[in-house]
Amino acid sequence: MLPIYYIIAVNLFAFFLFGVDKWKAVKGWRRIPEAFLLLTAVVGGSVGAWLGMKVWHHKTLHKKFRYGLPSIILVQMLLIFLYIV
Predict the structure, then answer these.
(1) Out of 24, 39, 65, 74, which residue is the most buried by the measure of CB atoms under 10 Å away?
(2) 43-80 per-position pLDDT tens digit
(3) 11: alpha, beta or left? (left if phi > 0; alpha if psi -120 to 50)
(4) Residue 2: its pLDDT value, please?
(5) Which residue pairs, CB below 8 angstroms and at least 24 apart, start in 24-27?
(6) What is the pLDDT of residue 61?
(7) Is residue 13 classed exposed, middle or buried when 0-12, 13-18 and 19+ CB atoms within 10 A define those classes?
(8) Contact predicate 28/55, CB 8 Å
(9) Spatial separation of the C-alpha atoms in residues 20 and 68, rounded to whole Å
(10) Residue 35 in contact with residue 59, Cβ under 8 Å?
(11) DSSP labels for 11-36?
(12) How far, in Å, CA of 26 to CA of 9, rounded?
């Protein structure tokens, strides 16, 4: 099982990464690749990414984020459940 400080750190990173990408989008600057945003969710930052998407109102219309992030969260919850049981 991953240490709790890793989970907290990667979720905070994912949350703020969505905020930075939104800020860059508003400024018209070079953006953070979508693959990297999704990768942060896959490596444990799915809740932070989902919260970042909701708080910053960013990537909410993209299907891969609208359906992908909840799917990643469900798979991670399933893996945690299977690990515990």
Answers:
(1) 65
(2) 999 999 999 999 998 888 888 888 999 999 999 999 98
(3) alpha
(4) 72
(5) 25/58
(6) 82
(7) middle
(8) no
(9) 20
(10) no
(11) HHHHHHHHHHHHHHHHHTPPPPPHHH
(12) 26
